[in-house]
Amino acid sequence: MDIIFDLIEKERQRQTHGIEMIASENFVSDNVMKAVGSVLTNKYAEGYPGKRYYGGCEVVDEVETLAIERAKQLFGVDYVNVQPHSGSQANAAIYLAVLKPGDKIMGMDLSMGGHLTHGSSVNFSGIQYEVVSYGVQQETGLIDYDQMREVALREKPKMLIAGFSAYSRDLDYAKFREVADEIGATLWADIAHPAGLVAKGLLNSPFEHCHVVTTTTHKTLRGPRGGMIMMGKDFENTYGHKTPKGEIKMMSQVLDGAVFPGIQGGPLEHVIAGKAVAFGEALDVQFETYAKQVKSNAQALAKAMTDRGFDIVSGGTDNHLMLVDLRNKGVNGKETEKALVLADITCNKNMVPFDDKSPFTTSGIRLGTAAITTRGLKENDMDTIAGLISEVVDNIKNEEVLTSVRKKVNELMEGKALFNY
Ligand code: PLP
């Protein structure tokens, strides 16, 4: 047998024995896994259901249509494109659909919690577009909406981005829209992180305020790795685009064209099938219980960490994640991430707002509860986990302690399946 399967088994063991705190990860169900590992991977299907550039697409047409219909129902939207291979691809399609190279955009600064694709200088978004950004207030760790408006009115970006990778609070989409309207900008929400909580109404909905919305499908939404674009009916006619022949296109046509043939070729129908399965699961009432548990676990973890003297940026969380500022503990994010890995706890180092350390070192770590909730952990386990993290941070160079914490971690996870919902 190919050695790759030994490595896959090794990775399964790693995932099973450890505590997974990476805020952007989750564990999918066996059914999602089955769909993604199916014969659908063999099929080419450039185009969209009913309008393909290849023969034999009757079955994948049904698969993709089901994925679209379920996503529409789940988020209560009128337009969905399930083809983006990843969150970044979904985002690239938005840029292509809405802007011309060189146009100005405004997103949350990467060092304050934004994502690479929201204008980072090392990403296509920062390379091809002019970027201005907003951030959080130093004292509160909360988005500074006044500063955002001030910069927006002065700089007049063509597109405003509401979204984050490392911000633990809900977003005021109505406020973003007010500002976007003042300058005639397109408002795009990237809900890659909180999508599962948004789907269940546990966080503010972006759909009535934002022109377009993108997400990943693999974080709190608990599907296979991938991306998706959504839009409410009201925005369908907002941006008629003229083709070279002079015809006006609907926004949905423009978005579809931006994904294929704009930035992608053949869609990954096996992944789209996995998305359809995950959306079906998310429509079930069980997913609501899951999403509520993700949120309560995050709140319990933030409290348990605070009780142990950790500084949580903004003082808590409304969603599934939190940023821990480690400066008062005398350790940095890089060494903490490394020590936690030795104790079988995975998380990622992360810059905190107004960080004085580089992105390679950082002053913080980001913790999330989506994955450990899927494994069946509850509020009381969050106290145990905060205790284990604290032990690691207090003994960051003590291999004996790290080994003993690892033992406790493995005991806690013993007998727990990856997917327990
Ligand atoms: N947008 C946000 C807000 C994200 O946090 C991420 C991933 O972390 C992405 C987009 C990109 O997703 P992907 O890694 O699938 O390209």
From TrEMBL:
Coiled coil: none annotated. It is found in: Cytoplasm. It is an enzyme of class 2 (transferase). It catalyses: (6R)-5,10-methylene-5,6,7,8-tetrahydrofolate + glycine + H2O = (6S)-5,6,7,8-tetrahydrofolate + L-serine. Its cofactor is pyridoxal 5'-phosphate. Residues 4-389 form the Serine hydroxymethyltransferase-like domain. The keyword Cytoplasm applies. The keyword Cell inner membrane does not apply. CDD domains: SHMT. The record marks 218 as: Plays an important role in substrate specificity. GO terms for molecular function: glycine hydroxymethyltransferase activity; methyltransferase activity; pyridoxal phosphate binding. Pfam families: SHMT. One of its GO terms (biological process) is tetrahydrofolate interconversion. SUPFAM superfamilies: PLP-dependent transferases (SSF53383). InterPro entries: PyrdxlP-dep_Trfase (IPR015424), PyrdxlP-dep_Trfase_major (IPR015421), PyrdxlP-dep_Trfase_small (IPR015422), Ser_HO-MeTrfase (IPR001085), Ser_HO-MeTrfase-like (IPR049943), Ser_HO-MeTrfase_PLP_BS (IPR019798), SHMT-like_dom (IPR039429). Pathway: One-carbon metabolism; tetrahydrofolate interconversion; Amino-acid biosynthesis; glycine biosynthesis; glycine from L-serine: step 1/1. Keywords: Amino-acid biosynthesis, Cytoplasm, Methyltransferase, One-carbon metabolism, Pyridoxal phosphate, Transferase. The modification N6-(pyridoxal phosphate)lysine is found at residue 219. Its EC number is 2.1.2.1. Its main location: cytoplasm. Belongs to the SHMT family. Homodimer. Catalyzes the reversible interconversion of serine and glycine with tetrahydrofolate (THF) serving as the one-carbon carrier. This reaction serves as the major source of one-carbon groups required for the biosynthesis of purines, thymidylate, methionine, and other important biomolecules. Also exhibits THF-independent aldolase activity toward beta-hydroxyamino acids, producing glycine and aldehydes, via a retro-aldol mechanism. This is Serine hydroxymethyltransferase. It comes from Chryseobacterium takakiae.
